[in-house]
Amino acid sequence: MEIDIEKLEKLSNLKVQNKEEIAHQLQDILEYVENLGELDTDAIESTFSTLEGGTPVREDVPVHSGVAQDVLKQAPNAQDDYFIVPNIIE
Amino acid sequence: MFEIVIGLEVHAQLNTKTKIFCSCPTSFNEHQNSNTCPTCLALPGALPVLNKEAVNKAMMFGHAVNATINEKSIFNRKNYFYPDNPKAYQISQFDVAIVEDGELMIDFEDGSSKRVGITRAHLEEDAGKNTHEANHSKVDLNRCGTPLLEIVSEPDMRSAEEAVLYLKKLHSIVRYLDISDANMQEGSFRCDVNISIRPEGQEEFGTRVEVKNMNSFKFINQAINYEVNRQIEAYEDGVYEQEVVQETRLFNTDTGETRSMRGKEESADYRYFPDPDLLPLIVTKADIEKAGNIPELPDEKKQRYIDELGIRAYDATVICADKAVANYFDEVLECGVSAKNAVNYLTNELNGLLNKEGLTIHESPIDAQKLGAIIKNLEDDTINGKGAKKLLEFLMGEQTEVDAAIEKLGLKQVSDDGAILAIIDEVLSNNEDKVEEYKGGKEKLFGFFVGQVMKASRGSANPAKVNELLREKLG
Fold this sequence. Notes:
The complex is a heterodimer of chains A (90) and B (475).
Chain A: H1 5-12, H2 19-34, E1 57-58, H3 68-74, E2 78-79, E3 82-86
Antiparallel strand pairs in A: 2-3
Chain B: E1 2-13, E2 50-51, H1 52-64, E3 68-69, E4 72-73, E5 75-79, E6 89-93, E7 99-107, E8 113-125, E9 129-132, E10 136-140, E11 147-153, H2 160-177, E12 189-199, E13 209-214, H3 217-236, H4 240-243, E14 248-252, E15 257-260, H5 262-266, E16 273-274, E17 281-282, H6 285-291, H7 298-309, H8 313-321, H9 323-334, H10 339-357, H11 368-379, H12 385-397, H13 402-409, H14 417-430, H15 432-439, H16 445-456, H17 463-474
């Protein structure tokens, strides 16, 4: 598999300094797990979790956490209890 | 000629009390960011715990559309960066949805109907709301984490009309089930439309264009028609390949046009994978069966009205389309009036007045008990049909009891033989020449006498009684 560093940067929202080195490392990781592809899994049901059982559920009862003000205070920018972010061009 | 192919994705906000993965309230119109907690704000270490009621409502929907409800379904992460979602991924069922392979019937005005397949319905979370200002955007995360049921149809619809009929039926079903407020203006029922065309007879589908986030039946209709014309024109001009590409478009409600939002498509690589924070959703056969205990659905209600009350199919469709109207109708019937009068006074008289004022049945100044009382007075001959209409118009603007209004408007009709006979005698003696003509064979004059008597009684005489007594008098 070809590593497209520019696309990965975009998808992860990260800037990579030494692109070539990172691409090389990622390539090594992919090669390491590539042999998994040799297994014939056609007859096996997909496994979505290695744990037994289903996800726990909770009752539909509202609780006010009361954390909003603390979190807004820590936000890089907030105004009138809105989080403020750089302009998003639609 | 071209065939139009339409598939719809509807997002219905489930009306649970709390969000899908945390206990924050889902109440609408709250102060910005007040309905938030560490989970929906994506603070490190906070984990999602699934709301049982959201699962239950999804299963109810599955039953209503005759679908398969999966005992095991999977929550995935759909990755994207946008400030309306602080986790940078949306939790959504991707690999296996809880509801699969359902159907509903759409009804045409001529009485025919058509089956539309429902591919799947899956649980996911809504995003927050951004408001864009000149040099920054404001983020309110109250809506972030509200449970959504995304209902995906088969590409079974062949016209804008069919698409709108499908949406209306779906809207009606979720309201009857009371699993969603399905308020289009408030955005609790929104729709993405997939549209393509193909030359008639061609097996394979054309290129599909998605128009996003529509929230009115009228706009959906407009957007489909615009998009169909655009695609047909491109085909006929020989530029189909260049101009019709698989993409997301936005509908501009001012111009009635759709435009491309290419920028977003480029990064749309969502890298779905099972959410490690959530094990598979497992429901038991008993859970599924229990969720099957659902209220009467619009189609069932309609059939019952036709069978038990003898209502015309078209009237039954009109009444059942909106749960609020059907409830109102049931309440009117409970007043002990005939179904025929209840249908007529609700769908014609009251509805006409409401439309003129731009009001919904919820906002009607005349509630079901009042309309029932008006019909009751008509049926026991206290007032006549004309009086009932006057009464309705009066009560649209006046909060008065029905009996008091009848008194005030002087609508009580005179059914007493003596009183009517007195008026008849007076009219006949004032028109002796006409009486002679009538007796001489000019039978058309009968209507004239009825009119005169009604006029002399200022509309209060019982018309049936007037007819009867006049016939006796004139022999």
